[in-house]
Design brief:
Strand order of the largest sheet: 1-3-2
Shape: globular
Order of helices and strands: HEHHHEEHHHEEH
Mean pLDDT: 81
Helix content: 55-70%
Low-confidence stretches: none
Strand content: 5-15%
Number of helices: 8
Structural class: mainly alpha
Length: 234
């Protein structure tokens, strides 16, 4: 209806395609606990993920049937939903996921707004990792005091996490060990904490690889495979 409120993002897809897309994103989120996608997709997948985890906390026959209809591979993902995630968020009233804006992924060179969709209080919780890094930096400063905003963030990331304060201290000690080892500043990478130089080198290698692929596409445009006679993909 003209002038009506937009209840959800259509994502420029048909209804069936949109539902399949969101189911796929949520399945990947439950599997990996952190995914990267565009901002609109992340916000829509977040709504479905919150409902799915609420079904896991209810743990009734009806909720199991409903969750089974969402997953593409229910035999693989239902046990994690009704055991691991249920116990993790048992005392949390809501807010099981978090969306963080990041720079555009540039998968299609369209500069689409991108984001990270993650499960909170998990092994890939970005706010938990950044809070630990901030504690290391502020403890190593001349004053050695913790700012008020950092103290609030510490309370947020440890409030509903089981053994949160002890786990945060272990993360801080790990970062302090890396910093004292002469490796310089550290950053959260694909394989955990990495030095800033290591992350920069890995990104430069990725940029070189992408530039090489773009060059090959430009060179092979209009050319044909001598064996099959088909054109090379553009």
């Amino acid at each position: 209806m003209a002038g009506g409120a937009l209840k959800y993002r259509h994502l420029n897809r048909s209804s069936s395609h949109r539902q399949s897309l969101l189911r796929n994103l949520v399945t990947s989120l439950i599997t990996h606990e952190s995914i990267r996608t565009t901002w609109p997709k992340a916000k829509e997948a977040q709504r479905l993920a919150e409902k799915l985890i609420t079904l896991g906390k209810k743990d009734t026959n009806a909720s199991r049937r409903r969750a089974q209809s969402i997953f593409f591979e229910p035999i693989t993902h239902l046990p994690k939903l009704f055991t691991t995630l249920k116990q993790r968020y048992l005392n949390r009233p809501g807010g099981y996921t978090r969306v963080l804006r990041i720079e555009p992924l540039n998968n299609n060179n369209d500069q689409a707004p991108s984001a990270i969709l993650e499960l909170v209080d998990g092994p890939k919780d970005m706010r938990f990792a950044m809070t630990a890094k901030t504690l290391v930096r502020e403890r190593a400063s001349e004053s050695g005091s913790i700012r008020e905003i950092t103290a609030r963030n510490v309370a947020k990331v440890t409030k509903f996490r089981e053994g949160g304060e002890e786990e945060l201290e272990r993360e801080v000690r790990k970062l302090e060990t890396v910093a004292k080892g002469g490796e310089g500043e550290v950053e959260r990478g694909l394989e955990g904490w990495e030095t800033v130089e290591g992350v920069r080198e890995r990104r430069q290698e990725g940029n070189k690889r992408r530039k090489g692929e773009e060059w090959w596409r430009e060179e092979s445009r209009g050319r044909r495979d001598p064996n099959s006679g088909r054109r090379y993909p553009r």
